[in-house]
């Protein structure tokens, strides 16, 4: 009789490490793992095979597993889980891990490792995974003792979701998952000292509210922290905005926290933000940053950023405060708690008279920086902005809960400008790292999390090819994802920078030898569609939205279109380029700016 | 925004676990912070805590960032800026090898004595002096030894502790 048989039914059966791992994942509420098998994780895949509580989604490349898990996490508020093998499995995951680190996405990545005795011997498929991923994760672990396995995995989840969320990697040598391991009871974790104790500083709240009561030109500048804090934080932001009557602008990562169609919303700020958002940021006398981090895509030239404002910065991560822009009031803590405290301190104060400020904003708004003219002759070339506007309007007509992922580039910015969001967690994009190839696997993750929702990947033809193999995953799991490709035959944002900064020398940015996306879709058992002229656009979008399976829509758009407004690198917010006719030097396009990214 | 570069001595209490030092060193290199010297040793076997003393430099904003970024590391228990917190004692140990003979040898021994440097190894041709003190004192000693047959130097980097009765770590943390 084996030990396992002897102990069976006593509740103390001898489990191997892989089984202990899955028990802990189950305890943590994990329902789905995105992964790819390999030698070092075979014991874990064997344990997965023998149970039916946790689903496994087989991706086609480990990078895609991480992006799918990111979108799963971002769209549900849960921790995303990834399982990859040692060596190349782990190194392929690195891009996704850094992406999650930059955008504060809670993930646990489980990687296989060669047996402990072989570590350091250049064994087959060995890589120094904890060494490689140390700066790519919020924290990482190498499990060396079976006795620490269960508690390490529990702590990994706690690290991933606590404070400012982020990716955590647990490296699991094969002998640890094959050999017996104890399912230890949850113990008090060392993390308790890390979590922010108590609410936001009362004096900081009081100083903020005092400034809010006297401000003539106030502005809320909100970020991804509001999304990470949960839907309640979005709700509190809406209440605070209503009560105060202040305008709200958002970073790329914060879109959806405040309803985009709302008149109090100025749109996204930053490099491709709206005229009104950027001018208001430049001209405000009180700037309240909530869960945002003064990224360079937001600030432009730092010494000219919002030069005359009293600045308040609320963030859960104290290292973000005073990192780039020195502020007058710092509020550390969960932005939900900060919003609650601000609402309470504001109390029943009537909304101040900000009519002068709103009149000023209205005049900026009237510039209509996102405006464009679409020739509606049926044979006219489709402008990408028009395609996204129509996609939004026709998706709205379906009345379905809609999730949008994007790749990275011009189409991403146009999507941020023209697609509207009224709920948080519906907008999935790679902000900090700017990872081309994010959108397609992200759509996989969102659709797995929300099987009945409408999930659209707004893509560019270059980006989407970076993880196009995930069409296989989409086919296998019958995910009705809609891939909406704005095909301009260029790496559009690269082309735009080359036009503006490098004398229109389009070095290597032309998408030569593209596949036929309709045939490509068919090869992956999906439906392909194409619109080449405006006259075909609405019909293609309608058929795409009505189809109950995956669709790749190849939308052929104007090749030379640039994304405006644009704050060139090294310029200030009041130096936006509004369109192609503007003198670029007047807009602060300098040699110095050319050195910036 | 002031751009003055300041020097800071920062103490870090960190769990003695695999890779912990690499996290600290990687943080400095990855974010482009300076390390002028760094020392590390286990100081609390029961709690498995090591103490790192790092001498760094940067603008006040960078120094604040260094401390805030160090605090984000999971194994870090606490971070203390000794330069900011008040008076501290900073000491470095140096082993200095001098190879010479005749008058230069006698002179080396005489100067060593005035610095309270102890010869810990003596041959007919050489001394190894052990010297503790502030980095400036050690710099001065090395300069004086240079014409007297200075051959090799090994320095520990600064270890530092606050003056007076207040203590940087007494908290018993759940581990």
Automatic annotation (TrEMBL), chain B:
Coiled coil: none annotated. Keywords: Amino-acid biosynthesis, Branched-chain amino acid biosynthesis, Transferase. GO terms for cellular component: cytosol. GO terms for molecular function: acetolactate synthase activity; acetolactate synthase regulator activity. InterPro entries: Acetalactate_synth_ssu, Acetolactate_synth/TF_NikR_C, Acetolactate_synth_ssu_C, ACT-like_dom_sf, ACT_dom, AHAS_ACT, AHAS_small-like_ACT. Its EC number is 2.2.1.6. Residues 9-87 form the ACT domain. GO terms for biological process: isoleucine biosynthetic process; L-valine biosynthetic process. Pathway: Amino-acid biosynthesis; L-isoleucine biosynthesis; L-isoleucine from 2-oxobutanoate: step 1/4; Amino-acid biosynthesis; L-valine biosynthesis; L-valine from pyruvate: step 1/4. It catalyses: 2 pyruvate + H(+) = (2S)-2-acetolactate + CO2. Catalyzes the conversion of 2 pyruvate molecules into acetolactate in the first common step of the biosynthetic pathway of the branched-amino acids such as leucine, isoleucine, and valine. Dimer of large and small chains. Belongs to the acetolactate synthase small subunit family. This is Acetolactate synthase small subunit. The lineage of its organism: Bacteria, Pseudomonadati, Pseudomonadota, Alphaproteobacteria, Acetobacterales. The gene is ilvN.
